[in-house]
């Protein structure tokens, strides 16, 4: 069946707050701290208790919002969203939160994750006369809610959620309440915080530090939390739950200063590096990491291996969005706008290059070449996670089966393809060990599907790739 | 006399190339690699041998130029400039290269440095009927050239340069040649490279790596280089020269992958950290650096001290240009948009925080507070350069005498002000030692004026602060 | 019942073409010629036979579209829309054509007119689970089509149209066909043209002159025209029809070079002026018109009265969109950005000022004052239509009952309010007479509802005002 | 000698005010009323008595300025400028007022006219070491002032003006005074007004009506007016003066509601039409004017000829700035975006088409063709000015000798070229007669150089065309 699976989707970040006089401004800062989770677009919807008002745009949080816009978003409650840059674009219509107005009131929706049966549900709804305005799987939830026969939004939502399969962290807001729902496997991170008397919610705990909120607790798998002027109320919409938090959140995606399920991301990465150093056991002169995400694991590796950690690769801090493509000749000369090697550091050295993962192999190949051209005698590539053999359907845009190099090639073959002198992946056990060592203990389950192919949910044959989503409109 | 000195100026980056079919595009990439030297504005002037054409704007290189603009900049030669964000603004009129047209041909000018007697020269020129269009000290050179009685541009330029005091790396371009001049003390870095048969010139060697050029040599103090279709010709406009390259280029300003006078910047910083560790000799649990500029010295420190290097502070990669100011309440809660502590790393630890310099002390105080609020048991601040007691007049925007905390306070007082448990500055000897250990040896002189007050040139009482420049227009 | 009627709506312009290689460009020019019908927004949807593609924006046609945009709108067929500036704004989401995508294909919709039972239908549809994305009455048609049980779009559309009451000229486009529908009373103008072998459709015939098309015929009340690659096919969705073209299209709204039902608008206006002159019979020195819409009737008046026609009022051609409000003091001094009197023309004269209509009376008062301040001895106001006593529900944004000065005051009272020396309205009979004299004869019926209160359709108590539409979202 | 004359220049509009709390806002409205004199760019410089502040941009007044910008232009005095769209562009650097800052104070300059010896003076100044920043002839005056040895600005200016030849209406502003100078032949219009106690100055009197100012008097040829906090002071910098106001200001350029030297422009045009009707004496059915500038003369013509005036040509009010070029095919079909014929008005009729002038003949040819294609039986072209045989060097962008159709062809030949049934130009005597009949009598001299070739000033062989100006930079 996996042969038919066509793809996977997008990662995003969500933030919400209820009952604070500066709701829009706090949401702005919250989204800013989650910017690494999505750079395509950003949006904020505020509620003043009587109506919802939206402000959205394409680009970074600091590009989308001006001080004037934020000051005009009056209201005590807000939800916000940052959207990941999918290949096929998407346009302003897909920027979240989605806002639905009807003569019975308004509903705003922000979503991080991926609904694996979105396409089947959409077919069904359209056959019943529903008109979809976006190509987003998020809109499906709105239609399911509207068509549910139940009387209260809570019941409508619980009914609708039972029809969804996949990974989701949903924020919904009306004039009267903020509803928070996490999928029954808890695939995506979602935490509750408190700033003064006001509850807030965010994809990552780093948002709480930035706005001066305290961490309260993580949202649990299958939990539905309702926040309104009476406080926080929790219940469960599913009792068939498991704990399958995405491992790649630790390995690559989240910010180093976030804690996921009690485990700090930087510390987890450093541990991954330490375990990797023990598993690899390579003779070399220096250890270098690929900035920014692999710096922590490279330092852990260097410490464990007793080797000097060096800054062998520099990331240009001002990359920005250049639309100017180098000409063929310049490309061959190797224009390096994002990453440059530090010649004096690697020249004549046996270099261990630590990276977090290999998806298609093209980036690794480019970096190995770059280091060798800069004079490295040997380049040993050490990856702080296992080979990624299966696509992710839960909101991380990896690739199809065919494009995943580790799905098509052995480690030895990959090593040759990328031109490295040796290639070591962290073992599955080492990965679990390294992350699980801290926090609430070994029982904390993790989704390892992209490494093992064991998916925690059903997968459907018509689950769409992001660019297919656009075309299917 | 120093009591009357009112200020100092701006840092910038320059790039030029002669005789390459893709001159504008290469200059674009060159400027992009020098972006860290100036983010206020950027400009490129190209020559097709018959006329000069300029394109400039405020903002980052990737914001100023579109692919279409670059493709319209026809010509085989180009010079470019990135401009530092001075406090008082400046506007598009001051973005360089400056382009002067007359009925005898055109002249483009790009400048990195600061002319300390600009104001006096401007007074004199205005008294003779010259009209200045910018508030830039760079324009003075154009007027001196135009009013010089000599017949050729080379002679006019040599004559004009004898009137200038201060630090300067000048690029001048006409329809027929590219002229390069470095001040007699060699205060600012400037290097020659070669891409195919075409010579290029850049403030830092990292530009050569990015465009695939080879490093040829550094420009020498007092040297005038002329590049035209006949090749490269060198002569000297001054024989009273010294080697006084700015120490802060190594400590803070340049990119880690650049080499200045044969010494790699990352390596110099790591050495600074090592020497600092020996001088400091502090008991602690972890070493952390203030990103990005102090990572190298922190790693050197950690290695020398045998302590673990940790990522105790995270820099938000998407800071961008937010014009949204946190409200008073949020400010008190400590909104941290640029830098956040990693609580799990510092909690309960004795932390050594390595930074490159202390100017006013406000940033250091904020970081120390941040680390303590995140649970650090002790915070020991170690600075990888000596106390900065005197303003810089050569192009680095430090501050006035009164604002430099080390000019007003002892090390003990500063330690108290910033709330640290201890404060260690690297010694002057240690600094010379650490940088001079590599490269062409100890004889390579350095400007240490901001630490010692011994300036390599005359200083004038009417040298202007950047914001005063604006007002004086 | 009329006392409860709350308002009316917006005027717009539509254009469509099927099967021409330059469909988007022709639609651009067509919309440009209809710009006077709506300046808030413009949009074009093209079909290349396989998919529909939209481009829309707020502002004028020349502001919304760039040459690049038009060149990217590939396809042989297109529909376009210009939208009237309603008071309450509306935003990009309401700019037409609306484009609905589903897994069975796409549907684009452009509409000129007003559905008087839109609100009731929307209530019903929302109760059944439909989610509306716009506040436009146009979207109701899309939902009715989607929920109709019929198999073909033609049948679905015919079924849906029977549920709509009001005035409408609809263009619908799918990958395979262009559908055109006019309401059973033919309240809005809509004509078919031909350019080469390709049929086109436009709100006004002036669009055909501009693009070099020939006029074919007017669309008939209750007619449904389908244009596809097999040619043009016509049928009727209603047999209970009448001819009630809006009189204000002749009096004020349409372009003078358009023909509506065979009658040229400029000629109709000149005739209105002639009849008015006979009915008024006033002694005066000069006749002047309020530019631009009343110039034709003023010239007709002057010729009939044997008086000189003079340019007593000048309209500033560069008014643009100034958001700069004059201060109170300047307002009192009478800043005149749009209209200025020509002092030398009116000084000491008895002036007949011809205008097309009086809605609230404020503009007339301002012009009379302006003329008197410029020295006019007497100002006689002559209006080339009857007193407007009842609001329009069919797409012209007049006003509510309470705001219509002629609904609240007698002619004598209005004359006093506006400060005129006399005030003459054209009679209802004179109006019919003047317009009906030409074209296909007297049988050509006209909607005179705004003058007489006799509406050709049912009116519902919840018909919304434009600004109420926004609020009801 | 005329064979060597290479060209002519640009028309503009100027406005200034001294000592009014709302100086910037009033200047904004003043410039808005002068918008017809220049649409390429606009600028305002304000003085608060201590410093000058500029705001400029390309485009219309309403596009260049926002409410926020105007509100930030603090000061009691201001000058402003609107710039004509020259073919070769020019860019923001040439948008006026020019602002020159020096250590002795600031000087702002706005200019309407053309300095015929600008090029020679520029050569001379550059040879002396001056650097020009713009390609504008206006900058020459600033350099002449700066290099003059006199002590006060008034004396420096008087000295500089004696070196200038040509047409000019100059406004100069410093922190302390507003200086106004008109060339010794009074070629360009310039008038003084008063709003409350504050004097203002404008190119046309229509600006006074718009801002609620009273007309005081016209500035006289060779007069220098100084306005400061002590009031208005007048003296003459030349006693060799004549009155040679530009005839084309009456015929075409000025707004109909302006008075130039006591003569209303609309009335002058109507008179031109009347005299033309008497001179032409043609049998026809209808008279039509080419909008907007020929409507007045067409009405005068129709009244004198006893023929009906009809709106045979419609100008699209929303032409805007379309950069979308019709394809070849569409062009051949005759896309008419700016002007359309009213078929029903001209069909089968003998049409007299009144226009103000013929420059190259291409527009006339296009309109004649348009009218014939719309069914006109005969088209008789009547021009309300004499054949334009010589280029203008005084600020109106006509054309070179070679491009002026009347310089190369007889009236009969032109008639054939444009395809008219007859062609009549107003005689030189008729022109003088028609304009001179009103106002201060026949003695009021006029520049008729473009009709007669008799220039009131010297003309130099290096007077530049506007596009040559750009190239010469």
From TrEMBL, chains A, B, C, D:
Binding site for [4Fe-4S] cluster: 246, 392, 447, 450
Family matches, as Pfam families: GATase_6, Pribosyltran
SUPFAM superfamilies linked to this entry: N-terminal nucleophile aminohydrolases (Ntn hydrolases) (SSF56235), PRTase-like (SSF53271)
Annotated metabolic or biological route of this protein: Purine metabolism; IMP biosynthesis via de novo pathway; N(1)-(5-phospho-D-ribosyl)glycinamide from 5-phospho-alpha-D-ribose 1-diphosphate: step 1/2
Domain of life: Bacteria
Positions bound to Mg(2+): 293, 355-356
EC identifiers of the protein: 2.4.2.14
Gene3D superfamilies: 3.40.50.2020, Glutamine Phosphoribosylpyrophosphate, subunit 1, domain 1
Cofactor mode of binding and number, as noted: Binds 1 Mg(2+) ion per subunit.
Keyword GTP-binding part of the UniProt annotation: no
CDD domains the record matches: GPATase_N, PRTases_typeI
GO molecular function: amidophosphoribosyltransferase activity
Keyword vocabulary terms for this entry: 4Fe-4S, Glutamine amidotransferase, Glycosyltransferase, Iron, Iron-sulfur, Magnesium, Metal-binding, Purine biosynthesis, Transferase
Catalytic residue positions: 12 (nucleophile)
Reaction(s) this enzyme catalyzes, per UniProt: 5-phospho-beta-D-ribosylamine + L-glutamate + diphosphate = 5-phospho-alpha-D-ribose 1-diphosphate + L-glutamine + H2O
Limits of the Glutamine amidotransferase type-2 domain: 12-230
Co-factor requirement: Mg(2+); [4Fe-4S] cluster
PANTHER family registered for this protein in UniProt: AMIDOPHOSPHORIBOSYLTRANSFERASE (PTHR11907)
Family as reported in the entry's similarity comment: In the C-terminal section; belongs to the purine/pyrimidine phosphoribosyltransferase family.
Function text: Catalyzes the formation of phosphoribosylamine from phosphoribosylpyrophosphate (PRPP) and glutamine.
Protein name per Swiss-Prot or TrEMBL: Amidophosphoribosyltransferase
Gene: purF
């Amino acid at each position: 069946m996996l042969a038919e699976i066509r793809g996977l989707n997008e990662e995003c970040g969500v933030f919400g707050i209820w009952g604070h006089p500066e709701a829009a401004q706090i949401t702005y800062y919250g989204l800013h701290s989650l910017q690494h989770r999505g750079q395509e677009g950003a949006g904020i919807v505020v509620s003043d208790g009587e109506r919802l008002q939206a402000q959205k745009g394409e680009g970074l949080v600091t590009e989308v919002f001006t001080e004037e816009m934020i000051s005009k978003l009056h209201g005590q409650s807000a939800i916000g969203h940052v959207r990941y840059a999918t290949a096929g674009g998407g346009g302003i219509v897909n920027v979240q939160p989605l806002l639905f107005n009807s003569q019975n009131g308004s509903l705003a929706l922000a979503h991080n994750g991926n609904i694996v049966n979105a396409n089947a549900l959409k077919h069904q709804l359209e056959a019943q006369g529903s008109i979809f305005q976006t190509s987003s799987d998020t809109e499906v939830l709105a239609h399911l809610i509207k068509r549910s026969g139940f009387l209260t939004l809570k019941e409508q939502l619980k009914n609708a959620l039972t029809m969804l399969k996949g990974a989701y962290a949903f924020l919904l807001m009306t004039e009267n309440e903020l509803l928070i729902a996490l999928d029954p496997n808890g695939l995506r991170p979602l935490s509750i915080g408190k700033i003064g008397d006001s509850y807030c919610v965010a994809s990552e705990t780093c948002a709480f530090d930035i706005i001066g909120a305290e961490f309260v607790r993580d949202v649990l798998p299958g939990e539905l939390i309702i926040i309104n002027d009476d406080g926080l109320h929790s219940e469960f919409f599913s009792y068939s739950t498991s704990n399958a938090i995405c491992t790649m959140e630790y390995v690559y995606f989240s910010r180093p200063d976030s804690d996921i399920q009690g485990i700090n991301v930087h510390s987890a990465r450093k541990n991954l590096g330490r375990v990797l150093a023990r598993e690899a056991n390579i003779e070399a002169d220096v250890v270098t990491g690929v900035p920014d995400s692999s710096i922590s694991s490279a330092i852990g590796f260097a410490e464990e291996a007793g080797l000097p950690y060096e800054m062998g690769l520099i990331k240009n801090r001002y990359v920005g969005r250049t639309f100017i493509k180098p000409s063929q000749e310049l490309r061959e000369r190797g224009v390096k706008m994002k990453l440059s090697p530090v010649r004096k550091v690697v020249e004549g050295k046996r270099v261990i290059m630590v990276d977090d993962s290999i998806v298609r192999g093209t980036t690794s190949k480019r970096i190995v070449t770059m280091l060798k051209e800069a004079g490295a005698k040997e380049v040993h590539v050490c990856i702080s996670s296992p080979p990624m053999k299966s696509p992710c359907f839960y909101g991380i845009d990896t690739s199809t089966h065919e494009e995943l190099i580790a799905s098509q090639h052995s480690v030895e073959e990959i090593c040759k393809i990328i031109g490295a002198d040796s290639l070591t992946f962290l073992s599955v056990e080492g990965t679990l060990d390294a992350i699980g060592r801290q926090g609430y203990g070994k029982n904390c389950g993790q989704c390892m599907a992209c490494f093992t192919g064991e998916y925690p949910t059903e997968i459907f044959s018509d689950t769409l790739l992001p660019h297919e989503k656009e075309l299917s409109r």
